[in-house]
Amino acid sequence: MKKNLLYTFLTAVAVTISIFPSMGQSSGLAFPVITEIMYNPPEINADSLEFIEIYNPNMTDPLDVSGYYFSSGVDYTFPAGSVIPANGFAIVSVDSVAFENTFGIPAFEWPLGALSNSGEGIALRNSDDFVVDTVFYDDSNSWADADGTGFSLVLCDPNSDNNLPESWTLSENATGLTVNATAIFADPGQAATCITVGIADDNVITTAVYPNPAKDVFSMKFEPTQEVGALNIFNNLGQVVYTETLSLGTTSTTIDSQLPSGLYIVSLNVGDKREQLRLIVQ
């Protein structure tokens, strides 16, 4: 009964408005796109918050996904009457009740299987068995670390190749929720807000932050500063939460910032050179 009500809701709103906020103008895409994955939420024992987000890139036309199914990753087939609104989203989760109780939005529920914590392929096929989208995510090999850190993986641009790790990043949407003392960052049912970090190569300071994710104390190493430098750490609201002046010739620093769990941007500025890195604090 729960699922039937959910399907009716999704189909009804599809002919009037998008279920969730749009991602903006898109062109040249007809098939749905996998745009967000939460494959290992920071739960103990069974994961109840795993989910996959699917986006309809058609700006004016709802997309009937009746009979679409996942042929790898999880076991789920969309029932008859399943419609994703134009420029809208649908969520498929491991536990639709837990998902809605947590994020406040409805989701379909897959009956069998779970997303691998070490990475795997997710394939979505239409009712004619044609593969419409695939993602082979990983918890290493240049993929952002979303393995139990409280973050989902988000695709910043639905036109990009979602099999490339550089097309994905960690969600930077603070939900205000905490699971097992770990903050949850996710964007289910809405456009992902992605911060672009990185500067032209000739103006970059070679920098490393470790460990990352960190607890309380972490260190940074970088090329010797040729001028007095400034180190700033910003939270997800853009507020400066830590600042340090680096003297001439500095090559490293250790920071005991006592920062709350979350995602931060570490910004290093020395003369006309700078670097920005993501830091996860658990």
Structural write-up:
- Helix content is 7%, strand content 37%.
- The chain is mainly beta and 282 residues long.
- It folds into two domains: 2-185, Immunoglobulin-like; 201-281, Immunoglobulin-like.
- The strands form six sheets. Strands 8-7-2-1-11-12 form a six-stranded mixed β-sheet.
- Mean pLDDT is 80; it is low at 1-29 and 196-204.
Give me the secondary-structure topology.
Layout: H1 2-14, E1 33-38, E2 51-55, E3 63-64, E4 69-72, E5 76-77, E6 83-84, E7 89-93, H2 96-103, E8 108-109, E9 119-125, E10 131-138, E11 153-155, E12 168-170, E13 174-179, E14 182-185, E15 207-210, E16 217-222, E17 229-234, E18 240-246, E19 252-256, E20 262-270, E21 273-281
Parallel strand pairs: 7-8
Antiparallel strand pairs: 1-2, 1-11, 2-7, 3-6, 4-5, 4-9, 9-10, 11-12, 13-14, 15-16, 16-19, 17-18, 17-20, 20-21
Record keyword descriptors for this entry.
single chain, 282 residues, mainly beta, Immunoglobulin-like, 2 domains, 6-stranded mixed β-sheet, 4-stranded antiparallel β-sheet, 2 helices, 21 strands, elongated, disordered N terminus
First-last Cα distance: 39 Å
> Could you give the order of strands across the largest sheet?
8-7-2-1-11-12
Any idea what the CATH superfamily of the largest domain is called?
Lamin Tail domain
- CATH topology descriptor of the largest domain: Immunoglobulin-like
Reported CATH architecture of the largest domain: Sandwich
Low-confidence stretches: 1-29, 196-204
